[in-house]
Amino acid sequence: MDFKYPRDFSAECYRRFLAACRIRTTLPKENALTNLGVAQSQNGQLLFKNAGVLLFAKEPRRYHLQAMVTCVRFKGMDRLNVIDRKDFTGDVMTNVDEAMKWLKTYVPLRYEITGESLRRKEIPEIPYDALREALLNSVIHRDYFERGAVTMVEFYDDRIEITNPGGLAGGMNIEELGKKSVSRNPLLFDLFHRAGNVEKMGSGILRIRKLMKKASLPPPRFQVDSFFSICFTRPHEPVSEAINEAINEPIKIILAQLLKYSNANLKVLESATGFSRAKLQRYVALMKKDDLLRYVGSLKNGHYEITEKGRTALNGKMKQSK
Fold first, then answer.
1. pLDDT digits (tens, 9 = 90+) for 89-146
2. Could you tell me which of 125, 159, 144, 129 has the C-alpha nearest to residue 229?
């Protein structure tokens, strides 16, 4: 491995890791990295272990080509038609965060009115915490030496699958999932644990099962061979329809702004609605699917326009609210 310190070391990744761990230290980086166990001093040089490279390299894929997370949204229930694809190639912790952001643009939401204040609570179709646990499992316990194989997040109309190379470590079998745990990468697990991303060993799968049960959803399905896959079944009654009563208010707000602004890109809509970028991307994807809006122009300078179906839907909703 041609990783050289400090040439290939990311001070920003190191700073973020210390912040996540709530570590304040006046030690030189070299000493702190040695204490973390990610590097060791040899003949005056600091030599990094694989976990250290995956966490702190400026470009981890220079040393582990397969160290990335690929997210793909398919149309339908097979792999024939790709709607969207993103490859995340940063450090392993950032890859988890970016993959979760991507998932949140596609996982539909419904709303519940809670408490005396009548505040609306967003409830994702699949619990975000369950999806994050599955992502963490996929990057922490995967085989990073299986060439050509990456962590895959596949979003279909009927399911979400998160798959990593390596199968189960240490001779475990599928019946022992959630009861026993053998980590393929114990140092990487320990570093994620320090940063507050994971709890005790073996609790991730159990937590996923509990979260799905609490949400009254089918338990996750596991497939194990040379790969390890977690499959989340999406509800049969889609809450993704943009004009569903459960989510029509944000849709109405966005459609109203499209009538108001003739050059409404995401930046304009973000300012006009007060919605976060992730929330806007999620609803825009739903609205495009339902032909309530369309994108016009180039990727760089284009904008969104309301369709005739969108105008009809907006007028209908406004009449209902009067």
1. 999 999 999 999 999 999 988 777 665 655 677 889 999 999 999 999 999 999 998 8
2. 159
pLDDT tens for 1-22 read 689 999 999 999 999 999 999 9
Q: Confirm if 69 and 151 have CB atoms less than 8 A apart.
A: yes
Backbone φ and ψ of 122, nearest 5°: -80, 130
The answer to whether 138 and 100 are in contact (CB under 8 A) is no
Classify burial at 159, counting beta carbons within 10 Å of its beta carbon; exposed 0-12, middle 13-18, buried 19 or more.
Answer: middle
Pick from 240, 272, 277, 238: nearest CA to 255: 272
Residues 6+ apart with CB under 8 A from 237: none
User: Are the beta carbons of 91 and 97 closer than 8 angstroms?
Assistant: no
Classify residue 10 as left (phi > 0), alpha (psi -120 to 50) or beta: beta
Q: Give the closest residue to 273 by CA, choosing from 292, 254, 245.
A: 254
Helix (H, G, I), strand (E, B) or coil at 101: helix
Q: Which residues touch 265 (CB under 8 Å, ≥6 apart)?
A: 302, 303, 304
Strand pairing partners for 120? 113
pTM: predicted TM-score of the whole model, two decimal places? 0.72
Cα–Cα distance, 64 to 77 (Å, whole number): 31
Say whether 40 sits in a helix, a strand or coil.
strand
- Do 289 and 108 contact (CB within 8 A), yes or no? no
Task: Go through the domains of the chain in sequence order and give each one's CATH number.
Answer: 11-58 (no CATH), 69-233 (3.30.565.60), 245-321 (1.10.10.10)
Chain-centroid distance of CA 114 in Å reads 27
> Whole-angstrom Cα distance, residue 256 to residue 319?
14
